[in-house]
Write a structure and sequence with these properties.
5 strands; alpha+beta; Ribosomal Protein L30, Chain: A; 4 helices; globular
Length: about 110
């Protein structure tokens, strides 16, 4: 299964371990997206950056569109109508933008293209 990971927040006041994890994921700026395979190592990395990124499974046709936008990293626009009602400092489960989105990731990426 393919996961899309979108960096939601920037570099200000970020721990060096989290910054290094973003470097390993090739997410250097906010609103950048990368498609990765689901594995235990990637899940650990996502758990570490959960307060700065959002992720979820994406459909195959959306993966093709993201690959056309960029070889490894797709530069996206901020989403139309925003990330969520409570913004980029609250988890998705509580109405914000951070963490695992599940099947709603396709909707977010389409709004960002």
């Amino acid at each position: 299964m393919k996961l899309a990971v979108v960096r939601v927040r920037g570099d200000v006041r970020i721990d060096t371990e989290i910054r290094d994890t973003f470097e390993m994921l090739n997410l250097r700026q906010k609103n950048h997206c990368v498609v990765v395979d689901d594995s235990p190592i990637i899940e650990g990395m996502l758990h570490r950056v959960a307060s700065f990124a959002t992720w979820g499974p994406v459909s195959d046709d959306l993966v093709v569109l993201l690959k056309k936008k960029g070889e490894r990293v797709a530069r996206l626009c901020p989403p139309r109508k925003g990330y969520g009602r409570k913004g980029v400092k609250v988890a998705f489960a509580r109405g914000g933008a951070l963490g695992n989105r599940g099947e709603k990731m396709n909707d977010l990426v389409k709004r960002m293209m």
